[in-house]
Amino acid sequence: MIGIFDSGLGGLTIFKSIEKKLPQFDYIYLGDNARAPYGNRSQEVIYEYTRQAVDYLFEAGCDLVILACNTASSDALHKLQQSYLPKKYPGKNILGVIRPLAEVASKLTKNKVIAVMGTRGTVESNSYIRELKTQSLKIKVIQQACPLLVPLIEENWEKTPETKMILKKYIRPLKSHFPDTVILGCTHYGWLQKDMQKYFGKNIKVLDSGKIVADKLSEYLNKHPEYAHASKSQAKRIFLTTDDQKRFAIAAQKYLGRKIKAEKISLQ
């Protein structure tokens, strides 16, 4: 079973693509909606919240967990992989979303100018700068923190004029640096990808984070089949949230295009 974790609804943009690419596996999606957004919290708090989620998913039977959250991938992934996992869950693994996006962006860029839009936590961590520089020292990275977008998406305001106005304000300074590739450094932003592409224009490529992560996960599982086994019957889909399950289900239905049943849990 594969676990997919996000601070809220954003990871559904990753789950949708993974499910489409790899429908044969069982999945548990966990959104920590009650404590979202993570982007403005300290590294210590982000690590602790992420550890709690990882514990829950491994105890629920997952062998592999995808941190479908850029903030968690920035502030918690390395420590969990290096210090926590070998002692607590040997034989299991955790993957993030930053490296797959950086690898693809570095191959696609022609003028070596890449824009990153993310939460304040992801931007201040400089995780994308470090990862992109490992791909090529010639790459110039322009970052923009967008702290208002996650709360707006969590409140289902992504189609409102106010959100579009804020989005344009975040994009304007990035365009002045003439990037040709844009990384959405927060999985929530997938809900706004079409509007972002429209505002950046046709000559600037806004990456599809879900598709990229799904493709990279498929490659990883081909090399490491021990982390996931195809379901012997109908593949399971379990949706968990730390907040109101009905509200979560309504939001998930809007993005996934089907009705789901969500269960409320607590993390500690």
| Secondary-structure arrangement, i.e. CATH architecture of the largest domain | 3-Layer(aba) Sandwich
Hey, roughly how much beta strand do the residues contain? 15-25%
Number of separate strands: 10
Strand arrangement, major sheet: 4-3-1-2-9-10
Could you report the average pLDDT, rounded to the nearest whole number? Answer: 95
What is the SS-derived class?
alpha/beta
How many independent structural domains? 2
- End-to-end distance, in Å? 22 Å
Largest sheet: 6 strands, parallel
Query: Rg, please?
Result: 18 Å
User: Unreliable stretches, pLDDT < 50, 5 or more residues?
Assistant: none
- What is the ordering of alpha helices and beta strands? EHEHEHHEHEHHEHHEHEHEHE
Describe this structure in words.
- With 268 residues, this protein is an alpha/beta fold.
- The protein folds into two domains: 2-96 and 211-264, Rossmann fold; 98-209, Rossmann fold, CATH 3.40.50.1860.
- 47% of the residues lie in helices and 16% in strands.
- The protein contains twelve helices and ten strands.
- The chain has helices at 12-21, 43-59, 70-75, 77-88, 98-108, 120-125, 127-135, 149-154, 161-175, 193-200, 209-223, 245-256, and strands at residues 2-6, 27-31, 64-67, 93-95, 113-118, 140-145, 181-185, 205-206, 237-241, 262-264.
- The strands form two sheets. The chain has a six-stranded parallel β-sheet with strand order 4-3-1-2-9-10, sandwiched between helices.
- β1, α1 and β2 (27-31) form a beta-alpha-beta unit.
- α1 crosses α11, α5 (98-108) crosses α7 and α9 packs across α10.
- The longest helix is centred in the first third of the chain and has 17 residues, at 43-59.
- It starts with a strand and ends with a strand.
- The mean pLDDT is 95.
